[in-house]
Amino acid sequence: MITDSLHIFVTVIEHRNFSRAAETLNLSQPGVSLHIRNLERELGAKLLHRSPKYVRLTEAGQVLYQRAKVILSLYEEAKSQIQLMHGTVTGTLKIGASFTIGEYVLPKLLASFVQHHPQVDVQVTIANTEGITQGIRSNTLDLGLVEGELQQNDIEISHWMEDEMLVIAPSSHPLSRIPRITTELLQEQTWVFRELGSGTRAYHDRFIERRGVQVKRSFILSSNQGVKEAVLSGLGLSVLSKLAVEKELLSGELVALPIEGGRLTRALSIVQRREPQDMLAPLMFRQHISHPIQS
Q1: Does the CA dihedral 159-164-168-171 come out positive or negative?
Q2: What is the pLDDT of residues 1-47, one digit of tens each?
């Protein structure tokens, strides 16, 4: 079917590389090249400039790329409508999740979704919140699950669930034995942060700013696991989701400091493009996660 070749062509362009596209599609590189040559022969035009370092569209390739995206979208829409008539959900579901959600929430949701809809091909991208919102904008993701406060006018943002945030310390830290932690006790401490662009980092920054906390020294790591290991090693305090540290809290390796002022929370959100979603798989997945268990 011509849609197969168009899908391969679009994947090559979006990965900017034949070998990466082949790996994504689970095809051999010669097989990918054959599909592109067949398209060029059918259309009577060169579609790509190729070199060992890059793939670049020709003028004809640019025209086909724009039209191919529309054709593939319409084809998936038609498939979804036909499947709905027969009560079967198939197709591809491209989900993006920020790290906390992708590591600690999404796996269980996917397991139950796939059990109900085994014919759906699920593709998952885990990145920080900024990376996921960019994936929604560029149409490489159908739906994103992200952390933190978002103010974006070009994408749809819906509240999904509440996430409890904790100030964590190793069990050996002097603050771990104090029944109530005031802002004064947090002054001139060393902190371990996530990277910029992370929803957890944005929340941590706001926590520090709103309470007027002076940071003695800071370290930056690009994963929840890295932050946990740094805190466990005594490098400093941090702010992480309760979802990310439940096992360490139960084992007693980490403690949640009882911060004055009550429970710390943030919103987890669903992000999608503003255009109506006609694909059945994303619609069914959104329905499936509409009532998550609160953290």
Answers
A1: negative
A2: 668 899 999 999 888 888 888 888 888 989 989 999 999 999 999 99
Reading the block at residue 115, the tokens are 């059990």
Q: How many domains does the chain have?
A: 2
> What's 214's domain CATH number?
3.40.190.10
Q: What distance in Å separates the CA atoms of residue 85 and residue 87, rounded to the nearest whole number?
A: 6
Instruction: Give the DSSP letter of residue 174.
Output: G
Helix, strand, coil shares, percent, the chain, to 5: 45, 25, 30
Q: Distance between CA 1 and CA 4 in Å, rounded?
A: 6
pLDDT score recorded for residue 87: 62
CATH number at residue 2: 1.10.10.10
Using only the alpha carbons of the chain, give its radius of gyration: 23
Q: For residue 189, what are the domain limits?
A: 162-265
Determine the 3-state secondary structure of 154 from DSSP.
Answer: coil
User: Looking at the domain assignment, is residue 116 inside a domain?
Assistant: no
What average pLDDT does the segment 121-128 reach?
Answer: 94
Which residues, 6+ apart, have CB-to-CB distance to 176 below 8 Å?
Answer: 169, 170, 255, 257
HSE (CB half, 13 Å, CA atoms) of 32? 23
Within-domain flag for 50: yes
